[in-house]
Amino acid sequence: MKRLYVDPKRITLSPGVSLALSPESSSYLVRVLRLQVGNSILCFDGFGQEYEAQLTVADSRSAVLQLGVLSRSIPTPTPRLVLLIALVKYRIETIVQQATELGATHINVINADRTQARLPKPERLTNVMSHAAEQCGRVWIPELRIGEDLESAANRCDCGRKLITVPETEATEFSTDLTNTCIAVGPEGDWSPNELQLASEAGFEAVGLGPIILRTATAAAVALSSIRQRWQWQVPQV
Questions:
Q1: What average pLDDT does the structure give for the chain?
Q2: Fewer CB near the last or first residue (10 Å), C or N of the chain?
Q3: CATH 3.40.1280.10, domain 81-230, yes or no
Q4: Which of 106, 188, 187 is nearest to 145 (CA)?
Q5: What is 3-73's CATH superfamily?
Q6: Contact criterion met (CB below 8 Å) for 106 and 78
């Protein structure tokens, strides 16, 4: 069944609620998905709640949904899978999309020493995450932070396992332990020596992703999928 993200800041989802959609969502349901009055769709709030809904007004600019029964309720995902990702100039949206699809529970876009790009607007990346969640079946949207430096993010991290990717480090076999895990992936020019020292002092362990030097977007996807694979793709339930 097709799915639609509903911003909980706009309306609280509950059975029987009538939901007037934005022009963008209305056009998506009526023109793209070709839904008609009486057709069903799933609505989720990004915080673990998903409801069945029926289209009651099929207008491409002002469609209306009637919410029905709760179809899924998933508690806060555990263990946490945190991605600290250095800001890159061209592919940050792709990285955020793939991290959402791969089960990251938190995404922190880091303003690294060697970053040469402007910080993206939070609304832009939230939109990317919500669309990715619609497509991949998630009911939790990752918690997003933007603009911290690595030192601040590393010192604030309280995960049981803290990892930082470093080129030319021997390929790492990730742990099967279901422990809150943070993985930091650097920019195209890699982390600076100062950042690596600060991460080490904060308890981060250097890990390698193999002998081939990967671009940031590829490295993030490889790191997250490697961790999830070692967890048998069962957790975190998102």
A1: 94
A2: N
A3: yes
A4: 106
A5: Hypothetical PUA domain-like; domain 1 (2.40.240.20)
A6: no
